[in-house]
Amino acid sequence: MASSSTHDHYHQQQQPFPTAAPPPTPSTTLPSTSDSAATDLLSRLLHRLPPSLSNSATTPLLLRRRSSLAITTTTTPPAISFTDLKSSILSNLPIVSELGFFQLTNHPIQPELTNSAESDSVEIFNLLAHQKQQYFPRHWPLGFDDDDDDDGDADSVFLDSVCSTESTDLTLTSLREFTKEMEKVGLAVVEALTCAVGVRSPGLDDPGAVHSLMWISDVNSGLGEKMVGSGRFYPYVVGLHYHMSKQSCNLLTDTGLVPVSCEMGSILVTIGDIAQVWSNGKLKNVRGKPSLSIEEGSGNSSLSMSLLVTLPLESTVSPLSLKVEIGCADLTDNCNKDVYEKSKEERLFNSFSFEDYAWRVYHERVPLKDPLDRYRNKL
């Protein structure tokens, strides 16, 4: 674990970029789009760039990037049944690894529990401002975050797996139960994914090697914002996002914003940046969490509840060893046997400190460039 002096250093050196006016965007240059939410998000991304990147010399590049992030046809994620999780992920591995996301069906999370957990979450966001800070004090990454940096981010709260609070008035019984059940599902997904790509999940040998965070955001606090979770970015192995209604969302991938529509009651699973490193690039990742599309008057929930299976801050992130390298004798399970044909492979990523990485990506919040690029091994 890094010392408090390390964080003091980050506060001095890793402050968010200074505000700069967005570069000119002539209407004759950009393609038209009917999705105002996507346009608003991209405008904010450009608005965060430092002055050196918003001059006339770099504007054409930024415009091309903005154009490349245009909304495309809505995608329906492949359905993976939780009742046959390992074999289902293995049989769908090519498309799952290429997309970086899928929807989980036939899972054990009951709608009644989800509705009760949502009510507990609403109770949190209905608190007065000073109560939010008092009951959920900031101890990064945990605590309540209502940072008003003029970028339209929704208010959010990071909770540990037991949903700890300093309040004796908030019981949060349903939210705690929901978090516990989602964590069980998330750990099972991590085991199935790592097994499918031929590596062993660290959590199997050491339960303390992974842990979970519940990340709740409220779109109504986002100054008119219609997309939840488009700003903050915290690293994770997999993210689980329960769809309480038939609600579309957008995912940020290497190819840009991808509109996604899931079944009501399904769990959208996003593969995170840590999973991409662990799999040595076999799994593509989604950057951050889904941005829910909330249209005015739609009646859809304005809350986003995401369970992130992530790592302790003191962890070191690096590609995991293939099972054959550690003497895996059982080749009869549902693991992908093709990976055993290669006893060793070149590592695409160098090892790095999880805390350093998490602090940087959370506070910089500039997803146009893959934050993992600096750790890629230059073969």
In short:
This protein has 379 residues and is of the alpha+beta class. Helix content is 30%, strand content 17%. α6 (111-125) crosses α8.
Textual characterization of the structure:
This protein has helices at residues 4-13, 36-47, 59-68, 85-91, 93-99, 111-125, 129-135, 173-196, 202-205, 273-278, 354-364, and strands at residues 79-81, 101-105, 143-145, 155-160, 211-218, 238-242, 248-253, 256-261, 267-271, 287-292, 303-310, 316-317, 352-353. The chain is of the alpha+beta class and 379 residues long. An 8-stranded mixed β-sheet has the order 1-2-9-6-11-5-4-3. Strands 8-7-10 form a 3-stranded antiparallel β-sheet, with no helix packed on it. Helix 6 packs across helix 8 (173-196).
In which order are the strands of the major sheet placed? 1-2-9-6-11-5-4-3
Main structural class: alpha+beta
- Please state the CA-atom Rg, rounded to the nearest Å: 21 Å
Low-confidence stretches: 1-71, 222-230, 325-332
Instruction: Quote the average pLDDT.
Output: 76
In DSSP terms, counting alpha (H) and pi (I) runs of 4 or more, how many helices?
Answer: 11
User: N- to C-terminal separation?
Assistant: 30 Å
Q: Count the strands?
A: 13
Shape: globular
Biggest beta sheet attributes:
8 strands, mixed
Strand content: 15-25%
Draw up the topology in text.
Blueprint: H1 4-13, H2 36-47, H3 59-68, E1 79-81, H4 85-91, H5 93-99, E2 101-105, H6 111-125, H7 129-135, E3 143-145, E4 155-160, H8 173-196, H9 202-205, E5 211-218, E6 238-242, E7 248-253, E8 256-261, E9 267-271, H10 273-278, E10 287-292, E11 303-310, E12 316-317, E13 352-353, H11 354-364
Parallel strand pairs: 1-2
Antiparallel strand pairs: 2-9, 3-4, 4-5, 5-11, 6-9, 6-11, 7-8, 7-10, 12-13
Helix pairs in contact: 4-8, 6-8
